[in-house]
Design goal:
The protein is an alpha/beta fold. The chain folds into 2 domains: 2-140 and 301-316; 156-284, Glycogen Phosphorylase B (Rossmann fold), CATH 3.40.50. Helix content is 40%, strand content 16%. It is globular and about 60 Å long. The mean pLDDT is 91.
Length: 321
């Protein structure tokens, strides 16, 4: 099994791959180191892409492949068109705007590889089935591998946010709600727009941390913030890794918006997920929280393993022609 991944985080499905297949190799795909600097070079980026394509086409035809990353799927699809053992994991939504040329390319991938295209949530799968009119069925939730440290942690009655800091995540409504809280709000992550920090009162910016440091710090907080816009379809149908990080850390997920990707969780797990506008009135019940947390993690892991078994059966049988 060969996995090409655009993710910086190790995911549970990758652990399943390594345990299921005798040979397992993960290739991390990323931009050239200069891409996000003022020294950005399109020539260097092009050479990186050429190197990736060379690695991709050198994989033996009998070896199954998982491509993790929407743009990665788009890039390598032409080179794997005639291969039946390649699976395309769209971690972000495809283009769903029929006025854009990319819509037709994504739809081509979904229609020609419908039994090998994988989405990251039920909501995203249903949306793509409706718009592309294709029979999709596979889901692998974005559940990360989280290192266990088994340390006793005292929970502080505070709110934390881990992620990008920009106006897309913190619009005027979000800032107003955060500044009306009765508890402290702290931030870790990459600050794209520093003015956001100045606009938030009653909180601290801790800085950028490694994935492990971030997860360890989250365990000290009672609440953790989810902030995704509803103005664009990808964020509205969000399927974030940080949901699983927050819940695993024992946090209550506090959502700024009632995103379509979060409504199911808000309805099914009211002690685990709460709207930011209702946080001041939220009554914490440890027994109820622990029950819903256990149920949530079990349900999501079962979904992931069940779908992974289907993928394995497709690889090991003649279902895919």
């Amino acid at each position: 099994m060969k996995v090409f991944s655009w993710a910086n985080t190790d995911l549970v499905f990758e652990e399943l791959c390594s345990s299921q297949f005798q040979t397992y190799d993960k290739i991390i795909v990323k931009h050239h180191s200069d891409w996000f600097t003022n020294k950005r070079s399109y020539i260097k980026e092009f050479l990186m892409i050429c190197s990736l394509i060379k690695k991709a086409i050198s994989v033996k035809k009998t070896e199954p492949i998982l491509l993790f990353g929407t743009n990665l799927c788009r890039l390598l699809y032409p080179f794997y068109y005639f291969r039946s053992n390649v699976f395309y994991i769209y971690n972000e939504l495809p283009c769903l705007d029929h006025c854009k040329p990319l819509f037709f390319y994504d739809r081509l991938i979904f229609k020609s590889k419908f039994d090998r295209v994988i989405l990251s949530s039920q909501e995203r799968l249903t949306l793509c089935k409706t718009i592309y009119k294709v029979g999709l069925s596979l889901i692998l939730v974005n559940m990360p591998c989280i290192r266990e440290d088994n340390q006793d942690v005292v929970k502080f009655n505070k709110l934390i946010y881990a992620g990008l800091v920009n106006h897309s995540r913190f619009d005027g409504n979000a800032l107003k709600l955060l500044n009306s809280l009765n508890i402290q709000f702290d931030i870790i992550g990459n600050v794209i727009e520093p003015s956001i920090l100045d606009a938030i009162t009653g909180g601290d910016y801790i800085g950028e941390l490694s994935t492990y440091e971030s997860q360890s710090l989250q365990k000290k907080y009672r609440y953790a913030l989810l902030s995704y816009s509803t103005s664009d379809v990808n964020n509205n149908y969000c399927a974030p890794i940080k949901i699983y990080e927050y819940v695993h850390s024992g946090c209550i997920c506090v959502s700024v918006n009632k995103n379509k990707g979060l409504v199911r969780f808000l309805d099914l797990y009211p002690s685990l997920f709460v709207m930011l506008s209702e946080l001041n009135d939220y009554q914490f019940s440890e027994s109820r929280y622990n029950y819903e947390r256990k149920l949530f993690l079990k349900t999501e892991l079962n979904s992931l393993t069940d779908n992974f078994k289907i993928i394995c059966s497709k690889i090991n049988s003649n279902e895919i022609k």
